[in-house]
Design goal:
This protein has 179 residues and is α+β, with helices and mostly antiparallel strands. It contains 6 helices and 6 strands, in the order αβαβββββαααα. The protein is globular, with a radius of gyration of 18 Å. β3 and β4 form a beta hairpin. α3 packs parallel to α5. The strands form 2 sheets. Strands 1-4-3-2 form a 4-stranded mixed beta sheet, covered by helices on one side.
Length: 179
């Protein structure tokens, strides 16, 4: 959804992801959605791909295959999947510029920007940071949409260089310089 808010209107988001800086904030935010929480689901080991927060099991905490600790909630609001998470890396790592920033990692917080929609400021991850993940996942339609926004509205060249791996930066710089 952040890409759409940033101007990538050709992208059809699959869900709304809310990444929070602190694990306790996941519980606080899910409390605001009390009316959307369903009834308990009878399962000890939930299937993460289909699990939905309930009144009795609002937030899950788990370790993913990369040993990151997730504090996670998922809602379905009028057919729209909303995922709320804090993801703590397995160990404290400091981001090294030009190595490819992790869009859910702790290095993103100083770069969150405010985009105003209908007089409401919404904090979103800049496209310059989102581009690295889309390049690594080979999401060509999203890459094209981000580049289109860069061509129409401009971009932060320093943030782009900082966020992308050296290889991805060279590739994107060549494409952007051609236009």
């Amino acid at each position: 959804m952040a890409a759409v808010i940033n101007g990538c209107t050709s992208i059809q988001p699959n869900d709304i992801d809310v990444i929070l800086q602190n694990p306790v904030d996941v519980e606080k935010l899910i409390s605001a959605f009390e009316g959307f929480l369903g009834e308990p689901q009878p399962t000890e080991n939930p299937d993460m791909s289909t699990w939905i927060s309930t009144k009795s099991h609002r937030v899950l905490t788990f370790e993913d295959p990369s040993n990151h600790i997730w504090t996670f909630a998922r809602l379905l609001i009028q057919g729209v999947k909303v995922e709320i998470a804090n993801i703590k890396p397995a160990h404290d790592i400091e981001y090294v510029p030009e190595t490819g920033i992790w869009e859910n990692g702790p290095a993103i917080w100083p770069y969150i920007k405010q985009v105003t929609m209908e007089d409401t400021p919404i904090p979103v991850l800049p496209l310059e940071i989102q581009l690295e993940t889309n390049l690594n996942r080979g999401l060509e339609d999203r890459i094209a949409s981000i580049l289109d926004v860069f061509r129409r509205k401009g971009y932060d060249a320093e943030l782009l260089k900082f966020s992308l791996s050296k290889e991805n930066h060279l590739k994107m710089k060549e494409i952007l310089d051609e236009s």
